[in-house]
Amino acid sequence: MTKRQVDVFELSAGYVSRLRKAIAKEDKEFILRTLKGVKAADVSEVLEELDGEECRYILQLLDVEVGAQVIRDIDEDERGDFLELFSPEELSPFIDELDSDDAVDILQQLGVRAREQVISLLKEDEQAAYVMDLLRYGEDCAGGLMAKELIKVNLNWTVVRSIEEIRRQAEDVDKVYTLYVVDDYDKLLGRVSLKRIILASDQTLISEIYEKDILSVETFMDQEEVASIMQKYDLEVIPVVNVRGMLAGRITVDDIIDVITEKAEEDRQIMAGISEDVQEDDSVWVLSRARLPWLMIGMIGGVIAANFMGLFDGDISQIPALATFVPLITATGGNVGLQSSSLVLQSLANPSVIEDSLWKRLFKTLTVAILNGSVLAGFVFLFNWLSAGGDPQGMKIAVTVSTALFSVVMLASTMGTVTPIVMDRLKINPALASGPFITIVNDLLGLGVYFGVAHLVFY
Amino acid sequence: MTKRQVDVFELSAGYVSRLRKAIAKEDKEFILRTLKGVKAADVSEVLEELDGEECRYILQLLDVEVGAQVIRDIDEDERGDFLELFSPEELSPFIDELDSDDAVDILQQLGVRAREQVISLLKEDEQAAYVMDLLRYGEDCAGGLMAKELIKVNLNWTVVRSIEEIRRQAEDVDKVYTLYVVDDYDKLLGRVSLKRIILASDQTLISEIYEKDILSVETFMDQEEVASIMQKYDLEVIPVVNVRGMLAGRITVDDIIDVITEKAEEDRQIMAGISEDVQEDDSVWVLSRARLPWLMIGMIGGVIAANFMGLFDGDISQIPALATFVPLITATGGNVGLQSSSLVLQSLANPSVIEDSLWKRLFKTLTVAILNGSVLAGFVFLFNWLSAGGDPQGMKIAVTVSTALFSVVMLASTMGTVTPIVMDRLKINPALASGPFITIVNDLLGLGVYFGVAHLVFY
């Protein structure tokens, strides 16, 4: 995107500090001159560099449409605190302006009292009715994602009557992808594209030109399932129906992209052992708070491992070389476990309609583990054997290490494959099976196997 | 999505085996009866369960529009081999049928000779011109993502002339989101929505009703940048212009969703140390081949660690308790490093326009590390101190372990933060900084620090 094409707002650190000075001096002229006409998404980026009160000041100056979009764009985790700076009287114009799905997202972050007050102050009865309807849906289902703004036409209408309806709703429904065709009871029957409307003659009946083949989702469907349907069939929008088949709202693709990106980020954080939704530019305190829990769990695991190894300190004392291979064992277990769980997570995210049975997948996992384990154990054995140069203790170490390594690969593969599957069936986020938790368990199992084998070989 | 709404094709293992028998017996009647009228995305799911020759047989039987979509849906990595089963004469009807962006994706997977033959056999000159134009763009830029099918209207046309254009292109341009407004030299000037066209009167000029404010991207822009622009501004479609500002094509949101999902999967695989794009249901051989490289590197790292620790085997022999804390040290280093690199990766993926300087970020990282390191080292010290019960050797171990733990947290944080940033600046995928590579380096550094501190404390 270049400046030739469009007036792109150029954001820089210099501008931000001038803006802050302008806010402090209440220099409205500067603010309006530089920000008026700038796209909401760009204004949002500027506001990310300011604190809450500064943002509030700016939003009160700009057009209410821009302000509404900016509030909508603010990251959900930070928005709760930000909204508390506004009184219900100040918030309701923004809520009037937004599409019902975005309005509801914001209302859900208010305390119940503030929410009721904002709703009571809404200028448009229709918007009030919309948000009260949508508020009853949980956040993570189709009903929680959908907006009520859409254009529906009756099966028996003519094209010219439908165009009247488009005109009537032109202001409220910003992006019209398709018209939904319903019967007298609002039951969804099909769709008709604007292209068809344009090309048809005025008196044609909708019933003659509409497309009966229409995909829809029900209000209670999980949001990630909605996302996968829209992705699979390449849809920009999908209608939502209630249990009686009546048209309840529509979900647009921009919300789905958000669902997909949030899920990917959430999973990545879980796999890294970060327990809250934080970013690098959060405060030191917030970052520590999000990172410590898993680190503490890892530390407890390490202390347990130390106690466990302590049982073998006689062996370690006599054969210190035994101890030197512990990092190899635990690191290999960790890497194998991570690979296995990552593959399973990928499968769970993109389920093929026909899944191999659990036994079949386990069997394949073990086969791959046998292959990989043999290669790794083989190389390590070769290395140790050559270093030992015939020394019997060295040979015993070679056998111990390679046997344990092979077993650890088998164990870690199995754990790494089975744990996410089991968690998924128990409705726990399977990404928890990756990362620090699995590595601790693998470490302890690996050490157990290693010293167990050592005992067998040496005694 | 329920069967009440639409005739959803129900896929089951039983059906697949009956289908395979039908193919073997060339029972065309069964195949057409069960698959005719089924959506292409669902047919693709069926075909995923069949082998190449079986797929080819079915595609030859179904409508060419369905066949074209199915070929388009096949995973890119598997499609190359699949396309080799078709002769140029068999392929060109599908290429005729597809939108130019999808047609080019497929043509790029053919050998040059086959590609030229297919193009020469295309029935439509326009399609041939389109694909030859698009073939010169690299795959990962806007030019490689775009399609040439779009509807453009001249600034000086009337609404009724524009509707004529829509009618003329109705078959070729399946989804019309918006009309692009150009001048006599094809330079992009703006856009006008179908909604506006519908509501305007016939003789209104486009110049009176079009929207000048239009976002566009240039043909050479990186695909991930295009994706982030479309996501930021909530666009379903974006026009692509060449260096002279002339309209060259358009990119639709379904392609962007694919870019986003592929990137997330690619990163996840890299972080797990899987070196190829594999899935759980690939063959044992393919899976092993993708997993072994990193496991071998990890193994080499473990052997290096063993040799390194071997330098201290005198210490270990005398004070075996020292060795028992090695898993704690390496595990903590691993967890901390993973958290740090994960946060940086997230930042790199969603760059704020104004980035804190590198020094500032490093400073914050170290502050968080000091905080976390102190907490962890503190707890471990407490635990060891209590277990030691006054024993001087136990006290020394407590001091050694906690000092080393604290240092390891600092080191791993720094490594985990700096490495992805450095790699990103060197244009290497920073996700490589996570996963097995970083854990090996952290392990070695951690062991070095640990035994170094032990020497200081004990001697």
UniProtKB/TrEMBL annotation, chains A, B:
<dbReference type="Pfam" id="PF00571">
    <property type="entry name" value="CBS"/>
</dbReference>
<protein>
    <recommendedName>
        <fullName>Magnesium transporter MgtE</fullName>
    </recommendedName>
</protein>
<dbReference type="InterPro" id="IPR006667">
    <property type="entry name" value="SLC41_membr_dom"/>
</dbReference>
<dbReference type="GO" id="GO:0015095">
    <property type="term" value="F:magnesium ion transmembrane transporter activity"/>
</dbReference>
<comment type="function">
    <text>Acts as a magnesium transporter.</text>
</comment>
<feature type="transmembrane region" description="Helical">
    <location>
        <begin position="435"/>
        <end position="458"/>
    </location>
</feature>
<dbReference type="GO" id="GO:0046872">
    <property type="term" value="F:metal ion binding"/>
</dbReference>
<keyword id="KW-0129">CBS domain</keyword>
<comment type="similarity">
    <text>Belongs to the SLC41A transporter family.</text>
</comment>
<dbReference type="Pfam" id="PF01769">
    <property type="entry name" value="MgtE"/>
</dbReference>
<feature type="transmembrane region" description="Helical">
    <location>
        <begin position="319"/>
        <end position="338"/>
    </location>
</feature>
<dbReference type="InterPro" id="IPR046342">
    <property type="entry name" value="CBS_dom_sf"/>
</dbReference>
<keyword id="KW-0812">Transmembrane</keyword>
<comment type="subunit">
    <text>Homodimer.</text>
</comment>
<keyword id="KW-0479">Metal-binding</keyword>
<dbReference type="InterPro" id="IPR038076">
    <property type="entry name" value="MgtE_N_sf"/>
</dbReference>
<feature type="domain" description="CBS">
    <location>
        <begin position="210"/>
        <end position="266"/>
    </location>
</feature>
<keyword id="KW-1003">Cell membrane</keyword>
<keyword id="KW-1133">Transmembrane helix</keyword>
<feature type="transmembrane region" description="Helical">
    <location>
        <begin position="292"/>
        <end position="312"/>
    </location>
</feature>
<dbReference type="InterPro" id="IPR006669">
    <property type="entry name" value="MgtE_transporter"/>
</dbReference>
<dbReference type="Pfam" id="PF03448">
    <property type="entry name" value="MgtE_N"/>
</dbReference>
<dbReference type="GO" id="GO:0005886">
    <property type="term" value="C:plasma membrane"/>
</dbReference>
<dbReference type="InterPro" id="IPR000644">
    <property type="entry name" value="CBS_dom"/>
</dbReference>
<keyword id="KW-0460">Magnesium</keyword>
<dbReference type="InterPro" id="IPR006668">
    <property type="entry name" value="Mg_transptr_MgtE_intracell_dom"/>
</dbReference>
<dbReference type="InterPro" id="IPR036739">
    <property type="entry name" value="SLC41_membr_dom_sf"/>
</dbReference>
<keyword id="KW-0472">Membrane</keyword>
<feature type="transmembrane region" description="Helical">
    <location>
        <begin position="398"/>
        <end position="423"/>
    </location>
</feature>
<keyword id="KW-0813">Transport</keyword>
<feature type="transmembrane region" description="Helical">
    <location>
        <begin position="366"/>
        <end position="386"/>
    </location>
</feature>
<feature type="domain" description="CBS">
    <location>
        <begin position="146"/>
        <end position="208"/>
    </location>
</feature>
